[in-house]
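Example 4.3 (complexes with small molecules)
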Amino acid sequence: MHCGHFSAGRCRSCTLMGTPYADQLAAKDAAVRERLGPLVPDHVWQEPLPSAAAGFRNKAKLVVGGTAGAPTLGILDADGRGVDLRTCGLHEAALATVLDRLARFVTRAALPPYDVARRRGELKHLVLTASPTGELMLRLVLRTTGPLERVREHLPGLLADLPRLRVVSANIHPEHKATLSGAQEVPLTEETLLSVPMGPVVLHVGPDSFLQTNTAVAAALYAQVTDWITDRGAATVTDLYCGVGGFALHAAAAGIEAVGVEVSADAVRGATRGARDLAGVPGAAGARFVVADASDPAAVVAAAGATQAVVVNPPRRGLGPDLPVLLDGLSAAADPATPTGTLVYSSCNPVTLATDLAAMPHWQPLSARLVDMFPNTDHAEVLVLLGPR
Ligand SMILES: C[S@@+](CC[C@H](N)C(=O)[O-])C[C@H]1O[C@@H](n2cnc3c(N)ncnc32)[C@H](O)[C@@H]1O
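Answer. The structure with S-adenosylmethionine bound is encoded below.
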């Protein structure tokens, strides 16, 4: 893929830009195998799961710069000036085609971009998410509630301009921090969840929920894990760090009883709606979701109880020291006749994955696969299927 922003030095986020995709994938696969070398033997690795190299991102996270009259949507340069990346080639077409209209909305509603150096202005970020149906969710991250009246006044015009826009919210983020959002979410439309059909299920995503960034690859990821759990003969699964329930709902659709554990109430609300969609579908099992800390073994065992399979998909920091306690707790809770015999680790950070695998000497890798969620960068999503030694 060629990118004019990269060539001109305006944006260097895609560090592998310009490298032919097949070479990127082979190099990333080799790097991941080397990193996990002694822990995941060569013979268990499957072929990597590829992605489209362009047009795959379902979410545009845009820092707003410039002025209300001439906003930039993209990133800030080293001097804090806005760099416009509306034509970023990673965005899905459903995003790319509406970004100019979003910029015009910023102008019409007279929303002054936040100036990081002066700590003045209001509009920090626009986050736009696309469903494969073409429907959209928009989150405006504002410094204060001050501009909300103008946003509400101009919202009907925006909705008329973007007929596929289903969900709009404002996030209030008063702090001067690099984080993407603050604690207060103000819904601005009646619908507060975007429906994202994926394989046999629908994921319902709120503005504060995690959604895997590459819809086609996420669908393949969930299908792969469901196949593994099915092949292992598990009838129950616990999905830790479940977000809006991708792994749990796919397993439930395949007839495996599922429980999901997640800290975000917004995500659990969406996952629970996904479970309701499956109720009554022939062949589907039940799924339920609990707001709890997945790193707290006692909370997980209380929420999930006995389970034959566990899926973990933590943030980049990994699972840390509580993992062995957690696995022991789940195994102890399990029915001795059908103990927890399957663990799937889906990781977006091979470094913490290696640390966590090293802390699990009683579990052995049976299969592993690089899933290329993030083309043009060296970021890697890695799946490992484990069974007891
Ligand atoms: C990498 S995302 C995975 C989400 C989901 N498995 C998916 O495929 O969309 C990690 C998730 O862990 C959640 N999380 C972070 N810390 C947590 C904790 N201590 N307990 C439970 N969930 C947590 C985040 O809110 C986020 O939804």
